[in-house]
Design brief:
- The protein contains 14 helices and 8 strands.
- It is an alpha/beta fold.
- The chain has 2 domains: 3-130; 133-335, TIM Barrel (Alpha-Beta Barrel).
- An 8-stranded parallel β-barrel has the order 1-2-3-4-5-6-7-8, surrounded by 5 helices.
- The protein is elongated, with a radius of gyration of 23 Å.
Length: 341
């Protein structure tokens, strides 16, 4: 490579890294109100600028850049804040790596850029850890606490969370918005105390009012994009999918999917059963956490386990159990990946 070519490469990647860091900084600042992450992104952005001399912008040749018109097929797809963070963090990290190599070629001081790259990995982890939608990837067991299935939904929800459910959703179709809000707030406190995420069913305004970790809507409810406008970036948006087409479309606008019903279920008696064939139809095509749901118990989970895309959602198997905590723990054990020797 000629010196001119290296200079253009350095300039392009310094700009690319700085742009990505500005996005991460503003996610931290405006979406998460996180001063520490915002400051970390700002410090990294300044470190990138210091890596090149003041006149580096003179190296630029936008008109002669053959990569200006090259676009990735998924460039316009950002279903939620997790996708924004991951895309821009990758942009930053790749650009910093190129900067390192370019500075080595030109005899520049690359060590600061190398250190900045490692700091960018930590920044990405810190930002994602603050987004409930990212935490869903660690949640294999999703429990729906339905008020028609248990007498004390708060106690059952807390027990499910203690047993290892990563997500607990409150479903109470017979309650009005005000009564649901009161019950949801108490359930959320109990669930979070046990370290799980709390999801509101249908009531988008309630999810916003109590700052829930997530809200779940059906195919006939509000569009997930409209839901996100109400609840904001800190709240994960889930949607039910009953067909492969709905699942593939849903992952473009939601943070997670509920796939089913797999089998007949009392919570959705009028919804046709889709069966395990739905899981087979979308195998390898889903990029968001997805939970098989509908009529699942221990026996059916054992049958479905090799076909599960990510995890499973249960209701009666925990809500009707004599010991909900133990029931959740046993189901989670079935869902965890096998340990290899």
């Amino acid at each position: 490579m000629t010196g001119r070519q290296v200079e253009r490469m350095l300039d392009a990647n310094a700009n690319r890294a700085a742009e990505g860091l500005r996005v991460l900084e503003d996610v931290a600042r405006f979406a998460l109100d996180d001063a520490d992450c915002a400051a970390a992104a700002k410090d990294l952005r300044h470190a990138v600028r210091r890596a090149l001399p003041p006149g580096a912008s003179d190296w630029r040749d936008t008109a002669g850049d053959v990569g200006e018109t090259i676009k990735a097929s998924d460039e316009g797809l950002r279903p939620g804040p997790v996708a924004v963070v991951r895309a821009n963090a990758a942009r930053v990290q790749e650009a910093l790596r190129v900067l390192e190599e370019g500075l080595k070629l030109s005899g520049g001081a690359y060590r600061e850029v190398e250190a900045a790259r490692y700091r960018s990995y930590r920044l990405e982890s810190d930002l994602l850890a603050r987004l409930p939608a990212w935490r869903l990837w660690q949640a294999r067991l999703y429990v729906l606490v339905d008020t028609t299935l248990c007498n004390d939904p708060v106690a059952v929800a807390a027990a499910a969370a203690r047993g290892g459910a990563g997500v607990v959703q409150l479903r109470a179709k017979t309650l009005g918005p005000r009564a649901y809000r009161d019950l949801a707030a108490r359930t959320q406190d109990a669930v979070r105390a046990a370290g799980a995420l709390f999801v509101v069913n249908d009531h988008v305004a309630v999810a916003r009012a109590i700052a829930a970790d997530g809200v779940h809507v059906g195919q006939d409810d509000l569009d997930p994009r409209d839901v996100r406008q109400v609840v904001g970036p800190r709240c994960a948006v889930g949607v039910s999918a009953h067909t492969p087409e709905q699942a593939l479309a849903g992952q473009q606008v939601a943070d997670y999917l509920g796939l089913g019903p797999m089998f007949a279920t009392t919570t959705k008696p009028h919804e046709p059963c889709r069966g395990p064939g739905l899981l087979d139809a979308v195998r390898g095509q889903l990029r968001v956490p997805s939970y098989a749901i509908g009529g699942l118990d221990a026996a059916r989970l054992a049958e479905l386990r090799p076909r599960l895309p990510h995890g499973a959602a249960v209701a009666g198997a925990v809500c009707r159990a004599a010991d909900p905590e133990r029931a959740a723990a046993d189901l989670l054990t079935m869902l965890l990946p096998d340990e290899t020797p």
